[in-house]
Amino acid sequence: MPRRQNDTTAADPPLVPFWHDPAKRGMLLQIVVLLLALGVGYVLVANTQANLQRQSIATGFGFIQHEAGFEIGEPAIPYSAADSYGRALLVGALNTLRVSFTGIIFTLIFGSVVGVARLSRNWLISHLAKVFIEVMQNIPLLLQLFFWYALFYEAFPSPREALNPLRGVFVSNRGLIFGVPIEHPAHGWMLIALLAGIVLWRLLVWWGRGLQERTGTIVPVHRLGIALCLLLSLLVWLAAGAPTAMNMPVFKGFNFQGGMSVSPEFSALLIGLVLYTSAFVAEIVRAGIQSVAHGQVEAAMAIGLRPGQVLHLVIFPQATRVIVPPLTSQMLNLTKNSSLAIAIGYSDFVSVANTTINQTGQAIEGVALIMVVYLFFSLSTSAFMNWYNKKTALVER
Amino acid sequence: MKITRLIALVAAISLLIGGLAVAGKDFDAVKKKGYLQAGVNGGVFGFGMPDAKGVWKGLDVDTARAIAAAIFGDADKVKFTPLTAQQRFTALQSGEIDVLTRNATRTLSRETQLGLNFVTVNYYDGQGFMVAKKLGVKSAKELDGATICVLPGTTTEQNVADYFRNNKIKWKPVVIESTTELAKTFFAGRCDVLTSDASQLAGARSVAPKPEDYVILPEIISKEPLAPVVRHGDDQFRDIVDFTVLAMINAEELGITSKNVDAMLKSKDPVVQRFLGVTAGNGAALGLDEKWAYNIVKQVGNYGEVFERNVGPNTTLGIERGLNALWTAGGLMYSPPFK
Amino acid sequence: MITGSNTDAAQMKPPLRNIGVIGWLRENLFNNLFNSLLTLVTIYGLWLFVPPLIRWVFIDSLWFSSAEACRDIEGACWSIIPNNVSFIFFGFFPEGQQWRPLTAMLLLFALVFYSKNRKHWRQSLAIYWLLGLIVMGGLMHGGVFGMPVVETAQWSGFPLTLMLALFGMVGAYPLGVLLALGRRSKLIGIKSLCVVYIELIRGVPLISLLFMSSVMFPLFLPEGVSFDKVLRAQVAIILFAAAYIAEVVRGGLQAIPAGQYEAANALGLSYAKTMRLIVLPQALKIVIPPSVGILISAFKDTSLVVIIALYDVLKTTKVTLSNPQWMGYSSEAYLFLAVLYFVCCYAMTSYSRRLEKELHAGH
């Protein structure tokens, strides 16, 4: 808000020239800055247009519908070289989502474990956690990725001599391949039973809370809920005749056929992202737990809560508020860092967009697409985390 | 008061930027700079790769040096920019480099949509497959279900997709954007097959830990005419680059080598006299010194010499002339008359 | 707390099992059943993992041998480093001139070491740095005192890594401060411009900016104007780091109590003077530790230039690894680089922590 200097003498002619009036000067400054920004923008756009025209480079997003003509290693949706660039880019975006999402889940779990371990009263554990955090934080992620990837293809045997640690599980330099159950109608029903179990679980929680408020009795609702989910699914599976047929990987020709496979590229990227980000998450979790006043813990213990309950009912809800904002930025970092996939040959969005740029020569459109997609990921993640943050924020009464 | 001053400033700045926009043609710019900036591949042995001392070596590198010899009379007046497949055409379009000698395949869409001119082909290549000997594969048709290492964003990637689609063969790509890294991944066994231009396969095999463990399959699935590239807009410069490549071929046709070129200056043959600038004319027509072709041959050599030196049978690559022999020897190398 | 040290001689000594090594072990490793189990499992895990690692690293390894000798050993082949050390560290810098980047690097380390002591934070320090940068630039570029000129295109290896990080920071800091001030400004036009810039940059990966520098910048420039690849990547790193610095500085600005602004206003100081004399000196002091954090990230992030084919120390290592002689020793080479990066980053991290403590105690 610009302040008015001459409030009392508004009717009089101004006593100071306009360049001494902060309000007007501010206005002027803004106009100049905006004009400059527009001017620079105009010059850039004009240059670019002139360059594109002079070099007769194609422009526009028409290429999206053209045939891509290249294959992608691990498409999440059916894709072949005959599909369009648009679909190829979609496959890339889904691959980015796949690795980011899995990575975030694992990072949250592993990072929390390391963060708690860092605070452990066990000297060995806490120092191991410390060493892990320092090492991971101080080595560039790209180098870590190269290391993991090289380890994968240099240290593991070829598919013919694949390690077979469990029945139906093979590890080779082509990645991890494991058997999956052959599709059966029972699977759909099991999913429905699982969903029903989750609904019952929610109801149980609600009922348990009421009971606790009225009588003070605590029912282990979560354990019951999980047992219920598993039991229901198991019952449905038994009722359907317990189908056990598995789609087992078999070595045939060059590679394993059948089963599910996880490629070395995906694994190396996932491991690298998870370990690197976990180190940062661990520090955040540690700081969050330490931020809970010690008196809180002592008070909780004084009223007779067990250590598990102290963690669950007192420390965790308070630490969450401190943890969530920095955690959000770590999740965003992980998503952005997944773009390093291109260096180790995992076909994420950047990698597909890069190939598209190579083939079409339309660098501006390609880079713009990369930026827009990541901005979309970033903004939607922060929107979600803001919502979650608000939900868990301290309600002052 | 302030505004007017600022407007004046803005105007001055934009004029300055606008003023910079007026630059000469490519050839004039190169002459003014005093050296040629060439884009090369940083990692293809025999075509463009620094040796252990950081000195650039290869057939494409020598082509660039020949252009420098034609323009400046000094083959060393060239600087090399290593480029990735992604950067190569943009670098040329933007003027970061003057000429691209980086095993680029001439295609219709590149010539039209990218605003580039490909000149005479300096290497006829074709795409092939390399596999480990122990797999016992004899033909590309037996590659069903194979994992294939391929360089992304190249014609290679599209060719292999087309070829297998046409033959209804399923395959899995592994894409890494560096020729050397890709080969390394292949030798480590990450993929069953390495596909690339046949010359590059030979190059990759020659640097394998155990070259005898790998075979190159007989199928050549594409035509890859590799040529130097310049951008649209300066026909004179295009002609110079074009005729530099042709001069190297023509010299071989005429039997002029770097060793005998001084003796050839005294030749009575009017064709040789014209070519070496003893009879003036060609140089002036191109806007070059009359000694331009002499300088190319003297400092870099004729096409045959360059081929033998970098990729020929006596090098680690050991590639036969094949399509790259002179037309008189059953190849495709053919030069128009220099008159 | 940790060991039951006996300060009062008059008191009876605690039982032996509560002090000394055994006491420490009891207190820290075996204080209850769960911890004891955890300790045992961890020790077993370490037992499985560490001795073979030590064998691989130290006992079965070769340090200064030829590549051929490495084929016959079980352990690590560290020989890859000494055999290729000049290319890994200095890349294309001409042989015989490599003492120049080496001297420049040593000079840089000396300057950094000198600056660590807060007693040296005077105006003279800025002059030393300025002089140091000029000398380093002169050493790298040459052309004076009979040193042959070495083009920026040949600057590669570790000096390039250091240069990208250092100049990235130097270039990004003023821009970041301006952006932070803009974001805190009351002028809506300027504020929104800064907010959009900061959020845009922070929302996209660095690699997209590097792509931009490598394939798009050239199209932005007028015909006939082009600048070097290294410089373009440098600009991308500056633009990227500036957005992050802006957020750090903004945090510092927010921490300055409103009273400071009001007092400055009451004295009749203009905006520029308020900022220059009152607010920024305090705010920048607060943000020194997080700024070191950004420097560390910038240092680590420079490794991304590999993807646009600049020869930083990671790229030169990869080139070495694709040499047929040395193919297959990735673990050794990458571990060596990891140690190199770790030493640099860890030094900065621990310094920033110490500084944080010192500055905090100063209040």
Verbal overview:
The complex is a heterotrimer of chains A (397), B (339) and C (363). Chain A is an alpha+beta fold and 397 residues long. Among the domains of chain A are: 18-54; 85-170 and 263-392, MetI-like (MetI-like fold), CATH 1.10.3720. Helices cover 66% and strands 6% of the residues of chain A. Chain A has helices at residues 22-54, 85-118, 123-137, 141-155, 185-215, 221-239, 264-291, 294-302, 307-337, 341-344, 349-360, 363-392, and strands at residues 163-166, 169-172, 175-178, 180-181, 246-247, 250-252, 255-257, 260-262. In chain A, the strands form three sheets. A four-stranded antiparallel beta sheet of chain A has the order 1-2-3-8. A two-stranded antiparallel sheet of chain A has the order 4-5. The longest helix of chain A is centred in the N-terminal third of the chain and has 34 residues, at 85-118. The model of chain A is unreliable at 1-10 (pLDDT under 50). Helix content of chain B is 40%, strand content 16%. Chain B is an alpha/beta fold. Chain B is globular, with a radius of gyration of 23 Å. In chain B, helix 3 (59-72) packs across helix 9 (235-254) and helix 3 (59-72) packs antiparallel against helix 13 (292-299). In chain B, the strands form five sheets. Chain B has a five-stranded mixed beta sheet with strand order 10-9-11-8-12, with helices on both faces. With 363 residues, chain C is mainly α. Chain C folds into three domains: 62-93 and 313-363; 94-149; 163-310, MetI-like (MetI-like fold, Orthogonal Bundle), CATH 1.10.3720. Helices cover 70% and strands 0% of the residues of chain C. Chain C starts with 19 loop residues before the first helix and ends with a helix. Chains in contact: A-B, A-C, B-C. The interface between A and C is large, with 59 and 53 residues.
Structure characteristics:
heterotrimer; B: 339 residues; D-Maltodextrin-Binding Protein, domain 2; 2 domains; five-stranded mixed sheet; three-stranded parallel sheet; C: 363 residues; mainly alpha; MetI-like fold; globular; disordered N terminus
Assembly state of the chains shown:
heterotrimer
Structural class of chain A: alpha+beta
Q: Tally the helices of chain C: what do you get?
A: 15
Estimated helix fraction of chain C: 55-70%
Mean pLDDT of chain A: 84
- Tally of discrete structural domains of chain C: 3
CATH superfamily of the largest domain in chain C: MetI-like
Biggest interface goes to:
A-C, 59 and 53 residues
- Strand composition percent of chain A: 5-15%
CATH class descriptor of the largest domain in chain C:
Mainly Alpha
